[in-house]
Amino acid sequence: MKEQRNGLLLVVSGPAGVGKGTLDKALMERNNRIKMSVSATTRAPRPGEVEGVHYFFKTEEEFKAMVDQGEFLEYMHVFGSNYYGTPRSFVEQHLANGYDVILEIDVQGAMKVKQAFPDAVLIFITAPSMSEIKSRLIGRGTESMEQVEKRFATAFEEVKMIPRYDYVIVNDVVDKAVHHMEAILEAERCRVSRSSDLIESFMEIGR
User: Fold this and answer.
1) Smallest Cα–Cα separation from 189: which of 40, 12, 10, 28?
2) Fewer CB within 10 Å, N or C, the chain?
3) How much helix, strand and coil, in percent to the nearest 5, is found in the chain?
4) Considering only CA atoms, which of 99, 93, 193, 108 is closest in space to residue 85?
5) pLDDT in tens, the chain (207 residues)
6) Strand 167-170 vs strand 121-126: parallel, antiparallel, or unpaired?
7) From the centroid of its chain, how far is CA 200?
8) Which residues of 44-69 are buried (b: 16+ CB within 10 A; e: fewer)?
9) Rounded to a whole number, what is the largest CA-CA distance in the chain?
10) What secondary structure letter does DSSP report for 30?
11) How far lies 100's CA from each of 5, 9, 138, in Å?
């Protein structure tokens, strides 16, 4: 008998510049049963962005109505302007169809998701050291030194949250880090708490 299981919700966080997006992309390229969560936002679409692929674009009224109806796993109001949130229905539908879903989000959002969805698996991605995090931020060459210092200060606060995650992965070598993510998926699928149908089938046979 082939067991039908729901997918896993992977919540991936970590400081800017540690390669979260690179790892997520590589993991999906190697596993066709993994999807990236699509967020809802009130900001206007940018050139090339597609509804339902990059974001679900909502008016502020639509977004607030979704909040009132409890349709988000988490949401936030960014810089007093646009809203961003993770639609519960998108995640739950894909999980029910057996897909694993990656939600790449900051540490505050991750804690909200864990509260709303206790089965979520929280993974923190980091560089080998704080000095390496700073070097990677500088190496991107996309920000001023003042901006780099602000991001580095934020990174220091983020790493303090590692003990509240289920796993931590050091992204030193991409292939190795992706292998660790795959190992986490396999281990989580074997949890007794996720195998109630299998256990029940054995109990039925023994009756």
Assistant:
1) 10
2) C
3) 45, 20, 30
4) 108
5) 445 578 999 999 999 999 999 999 999 999 999 999 999 999 999 999 999 999 999 999 999 999 999 999 999 998 778 999 999 999 999 999 999 999 999 999 999 999 999 999 999 999 999 999 999 999 988 899 999 999 999 999 999 999 999 999 999 999 999 999 999 999 999 888 877 777 777 777 766
6) parallel
7) 31
8) eeeeeeeeeeebbbbeeeebeebeee
9) 69
10) H
11) 10, 6, 33
pTM here is 0.89
Q: List the Cα angle 147/21/146 in 5-degree steps.
A: 5
| Helix intervals (H) in the chain | 20-30, 60-68, 88-96, 107-116, 130-140, 145-159, 174-189, 196-206
Do strands 82-87 and 39-41 pair parallel, antiparallel, or not at all (unpaired)? antiparallel
Q: What is the topology classification, in CATH, of domain 9-37+100-206?
A: Rossmann fold (3.40.50)
Place of tokens 């509804």: 51
Beta-strand relationship, 167-170 and 72-78:
unpaired
Q: Which residue reads 């790892």 in tokens?
A: 23
- CA neighbor of 102 nearest in space, from 125, 128, 121: 121
Cα–chain center distance at 193? 21
> What are the backbone dihedrals phi and psi of residue 44, each rounded to the nearest 5 degrees, phi first?
-70, 145
Residue 127 burial (10 A CB sphere; 0-12, 13-18, 19+) = buried
